[in-house]
What does this fold into?
Amino acid sequence: MTIGVREFDITDTISLLLLPLIYSLLMGLGIYLAKPIKSIGPEQSKVAGGIVVLIIGVLLAKLAISSGQSIATIFNVGPALLLQLLGDLGTLIALPVALLLGFRREVIGMTSSICREPNLGVIIDKYGFKSPEARGVLSIFVIGSIIGTPFISLLSSVCTSIMPFHPYAFAMASGIGSASMNAAALVPLTHLYPAMETQLEAFAGCSNILSFCLGIYMCIFISLPIAEKLYKFLYPLLGKKDRYIDDDVSQNEANENKKDYDGFTLGKFKRWSVLLLSFSVIVTVGNFIGYHTPLFDTFIGMLIISIITLIGMILERVCPFDIQSIIFISIIGLIISIPGMPTANFVAHYVSNVELTTICTAFLAYVGISIGNDWEDFKKIGWKGIIVTMLVIFGTYLGSASIAQLTLFVTGTI
It folds into this structure.
């Protein structure tokens, strides 16, 4: 957080952003691989993987609370803004290409979403950190964080210049749930249409809020199930024999990852509580360094988020039905933060001090250490992952723009 955001201009309309979360992930990976700290090895990497699964709840609780606070915006926007979210399914165009490139179950994590922080949480929670699906989503997350901003800026410049879509459609398409990519896609648009700058910023902002708030539900209930079905259908047709991951190994890993989910014990409650309290302190200090927020208010906000996470983890294990903790966490966070609820003002006041970037930065330090133990598997993704990443971004951007254009035309807005 001390280093902050670094921006490098490539052209007048295209720039490269380096964010604190990237430094954190790379430093965590570097600590494991280079061994400057001798005590961090395979065992510590395994522990970090377990912590990652728990911290995902913290990340999703923060997102759920933001969704509740923005509920009025969600209901007040026009149909084009809502329907363009279906354009997120455009990421699936990368799935057959990924299969042709030799990937196997990794494609489910790679192509079911734009692979930003909320989607990262969904995949790891569902399949486990050691799964090929998690390796897939993590690879696209890392590659997208590095090349995503300049690529979508270039994509926006080209599309707005050659495609006969209304600028509003492209503005809506720029809201894919990532602040940096949202800004990068919007800059070329406002440069080409300076007289419409205010309107374009408004559409892009609302679209990004909607993607930020509702994208996780799109992933859980629509795109992820479709990706799984497409994989089962297309792999026999397009898959290569020199596969990266064997299905039997994948299933064994998945079963291993689920062992910790069996039942609820007092010992687990104590471990979770200590880990969440420690993480709350880390985020509070990082938030103060990066954003100069009040220490007490930020810590109270993190405690609220941690309590929601703890309740969700417990409910998953005591509930007689097979419901993931992320569902419980999302519902609880959403309900208690909706304006008008008795808890809304209290929750909003304290949790608003907690920056999502700080949570992600601390979270990705653990991810970096965990990746170290499986670095050879990640290296196999290589340049092929860059191709899949660009197709994922291309698919969601063009998909959202196309649906927004059609809806704007049908409703008579343009």
The CA atoms of residues 85 and 301 lie 30 Å apart. The chain has two domains: 1-76+265-379, 78-244+383-414.
